[in-house]
Write a structure and sequence with these properties.
By secondary structure, the protein is of the alpha/beta class. Helix content is 27%, strand content 21%. Helix 1 runs parallel beside helix 2.
Length: 169
């Protein structure tokens, strides 16, 4: 007697979402203002403006840039504004914060292209493993976007999932 194989995954109605499809390709770099501080404590306006004027900003061409100060120092808000203004039209994106904040911002922007209504009342699996560095910020962000509309949300592969959310009722 011939055995019939049924592909239960194919018949499950699961929609697989690969976050790598939304990955922003490009180099990520940071500017740490601590390198520009006088005695590691305070930003001197005259010296800072000289740096802004003479720095080679072209090294940031088409890069994703995180601007922050990694020390507990007195850095006026306008200093970050000056850096952002200099990078305008050069860098692909500039955010205030460290590289983790940059990643979170890139994922948030990428998911703006996602048609959330395509997932309404669906069973969705967020693919877990891949070749690109998908940050925890991406998984958090996609969960925030999908939970209000999906029937269920899972993590992993369709053949082996971890339940994350299931609508009651």
């Amino acid at each position: 007697m011939e055995e019939i194989f049924v592909n239960k995954v194919a018949n499950s109605g699961l929609i697989s979402l690969n976050l790598e499809d939304y990955y922003s390709v490009g180099e990520r770099v940071e500017i740490d203002v601590k390198e520009l501080l006088f005695m590691g404590l305070v930003l001197k306006e005259k010296d800072f403006r000289e740096f802004i004027k003479t720095n080679d900003w072209s090294v940031y061409q088409n890069k994703f840039v995180a601007v922050h100060c990694s020390t507990d120092a007195i850095v006026p808000t306008w200093a970050y504004m000056l850096i952002a203004a200099k990078l305008s039209g050069i860098a692909a994106k500039v955010v205030f914060g460290d590289l983790n904040a940059l990643e979170a911002s890139l994922w948030e922007n990428a998911f703006e292209k996602l048609e959330i209504e395509d997932y309404r009342d669906q069973k969705v699996v967020i693919k877990g493993c891949g070749d690109l560095p998908v940050s925890p910020a991406a998984y958090t962000n996609i969960s925030n976007k999908l939970v209000p509309v999906v029937h269920s949300l899972m993590y992993g592969e369709p053949c082996s999932t971890v339940p994350v959310y299931k609508r009651k009722g």
